[in-house]
Amino acid sequence: MESTKSEDCLIFYGFTPEITKMRQIINSIEEFMKNKQYIDPSDRFNLIVFQDDGPNYLNHFTLDPEYILKTLKSMSNEITNANIAGGIFIAITFIIEVYKKISEKIFRLLILIDEGAYDIPPEYFLPIEELIKVVKDMPFFIDIVRIGPADLE
């Protein structure tokens, strides 16, 4: 059996509150985290959401998927449209800081968006590309999951 490194996954909740309702998504996030921990119980999670006062995230990754779900549910009424470019900057910078302390992990940024997500302004493309170059040699992956109304029925 091949040994793999455990993974720290930062979930960027970028769904538009007026389009995608959290109750439709929460079970999928829960299933995702539980499946990952079934494969490797040392996988950890964190969360980024945007509220009126800006981005909100945990100060550390956690082994407890229920903590992530409770945190997400507690913020549900205050979630606003996400600043996708800002969230990517925060997420990658946060992951770089964790990597400096725990380099034996694999890191994943899971970006969850819908058709209401703000487009990334072109002037942010180059700075995001430069930041991605910093992590290109790290064990780091970015996954983007975009859903639309037909996917929710």
Question: Which labels suit this protein?
Answer:
153 residues, alpha/beta, five-stranded mixed β-sheet, 5 strands, 41% helix
Residue ranges: pLDDT <50 for 5 or more in a row? none
Structural class: alpha/beta
Tally of extended strands?
5
Report the helical percentage.
40-55%
Assess the beta-strand content as a share of residues: 15-25%
Topology as a string of helices (H) and strands (E): EHEEHHEHEH
Structure annotation, total helices: 5
Question: Biggest sheet, strands in spatial order?
Answer: 3-2-1-4-5
Instruction: Determine Rg (CA atoms, Å).
Output: 15 Å
Provide a descriptive summary of the structure in words.
This protein has 153 residues and is α/β, with parallel strands linked by helices. Helix 4 links the parallel strand 4 and strand 5. A five-stranded mixed sheet has the order 3-2-1-4-5, sandwiched between helices. The chain contains five helices and five strands, in the order E-H-E-E-H-H-E-H-E-H. The longest helix has 18 residues. 41% of the residues lie in helices and 24% in strands.
Q: Mind sketching the topology for me?
A:
Blueprint: E1 7-14, H1 22-39, E2 44-51, E3 54-57, H2 65-75, H3 84-101, E4 106-114, H4 125-135, E5 140-147, H5 149-152
Parallel strand pairs: 1-2, 1-4, 4-5
Antiparallel strand pairs: 2-3
Task: Tell me briefly what this model is.
This protein has 153 residues and is an alpha/beta fold. The chain is built from 5 helices and 5 strands; from the N terminus they run E-H-E-E-H-H-E-H-E-H. The protein starts with 6 loop residues before the first strand and ends with a helix.
